[in-house]
Design brief:
- With about 375 residues, this protein is mainly α.
- It contains 13 helices and 2 strands, in the order αααααααααααβααβ.
- Helix 8 runs parallel beside helix 10, helix 10 packs antiparallel against helix 13 and helix 12 runs antiparallel to helix 13.
Length: about 375
């Protein structure tokens, strides 16, 4: 039975929701709504009053957005405050067809306009539009409209308190776990490339499988961002942002694929035997850096020392120059060009790995311990 469950997890659950992160996220959201419903029933709410209480609770949960935990709280309060103002207005003008159409047009225009400001603004706009439309099609006088707004605020605040204070769920922790899995899978892919340098029996099929796993992990990280309404494209070089770290993962994967395309330079060439050892030593150091960085899930990791790796890369470059590949004929020249390309991609891997670590420190507020001497 445990073997069956393990295989079921690997085949069906891990590709879409490793660690059941999204499942737990959805479960907590459901519990927040149920607790808000329980509070409403204890207050004796029935009928439309209960309906608007639940709309407030669902509004707070469904339209959560923001790239950090503090921003999600802020945006949640903005949404609740906005709908508490638009709902009574919509209830009053709902009985007038012309005024209703004009109000719907203004809200729709505002909703599509704020979408240009980013995912968070777009999510708040859509939530406001949906809740206000419900109120428009349920016209009422000013006093019932204000009561409707009060019940909406009550249900929303109950969910807000549970979601952000009593039982907080920080999406940053989920994204950190997803990022750790992406780095881990890319590390496994790099370990396969490292083994391929000395062992030609490591086939391209094996490496293609590892690359597909790494690619799926990066896509999963973006899907997780989108599921939390975090804009994966948001970020700048000066102010940072969630998108910068995502793109650093993409660039690192691209350099690994570049190395994959040139890793065959030493196959069947005894003259590269000594060079293979230096390549392998440098690659082993990079693999250790990947392993150290996968400890990031704990919020702290030991900073790898890249100076020996840079020294090995300089030795490879010097050795390639001294081998004078331009004197080897067309076939020999092609092999040396492959070796230079592999060295170039290996340097890129080191550069992108260092950049990705620096962005992760900024993105997730990681604590870095100095490497052991």
């Amino acid at each position: 039975m445990p073997r069956f469950l393990n295989r079921f997890y690997i085949e069906f659950i891990r590709p879409t929701d490793p660690g059941l992160f999204i499942t737990r996220y959805a479960a907590k959201a459901t519990v927040c709504c149920l607790l808000s419903l329980t509070a409403a029933l204890l207050l004796g709410l029935r009928g439309h009053d209960l309906l608007w209480w639940l709309i407030g609770a669902l509004c707070t949960i469904l339209f959560r957005t923001g790239s950090t935990f503090s921003r999600r709280k802020m945006y949640g309060l903005i949404l609740l405050g906005t709908v508490s103002l638009t709902v009574p207005i919509a209830a009053v003008i709902g009985s007038n067809t012309g005024a209703s159409l004009a109000f719907i047009f203004i809200l729709s225009f505002a909703c599509f306009f704020v979408a240009a400001l980013g995912v968070s603004a777009s999510t708040i706009g859509i939530g406001c539009l949906v809740v206000t439309m419900i109120s428009i099609f349920s016209p009422a006088a000013i006093i019932p409209g204000l009561i409707r707004s009060a019940w909406l605020m009550g249900g929303g605040l109950i969910s807000f308190l549970i979601n952000f204070y009593l039982w907080p769920f920080d999406p940053e922790k989920v994204l950190l776990s997803a990022a750790k899995l992406a780095v881990e899978d890319m590390g496994l892919f790099f370990d396969g490339l490292c083994a391929r340098i000395k062992n030609p029996r490591v086939t391209d099929a094996n490496l293609n499988y590892l690359s597909s796993e790494a690619s799926a992990s990066i896509r999963r990280y973006r899907i997780f961002m989108e599921s939390f309404n975090v804009d994966p494209l948001k970020g700048s070089r000066t102010q940072g942002g969630p998108g910068l770290y995502y793109f650093s993962l993409v660039r690192l994967f691209e350099t690994l694929m570049g190395l994959f395309h040139h890793i065959h330079f030493c196959d069947g060439n005894p003259e590269f035997d000594e060079l293979k050892e230096t390549f392998y030593t440098a690659s082993a150091g990079i693999g250790e850096a990947f392993d150290l960085f996968t400890e990031m899930k704990s919020g702290m990791y030991i900073k790898p020392d890249f100076s020996p790796i840079h020294t090995d890369l300089e030795e490879i470059q010097t050795a390639l120059v001294e081998m004078k590949g331009y004197q080897k004929g067309d076939h020999g020249q092609n092999k040396f060009l492959e070796a230079w390309a592999a060295l170039y991609e290996l340097k890129n891997v080191v550069g992108e790995l260092e950049t990705m670590m620096a962005l992760a420190d900024q993105r997730f507020q990681l604590k870095v311990k100095p490497h052991a001497a």
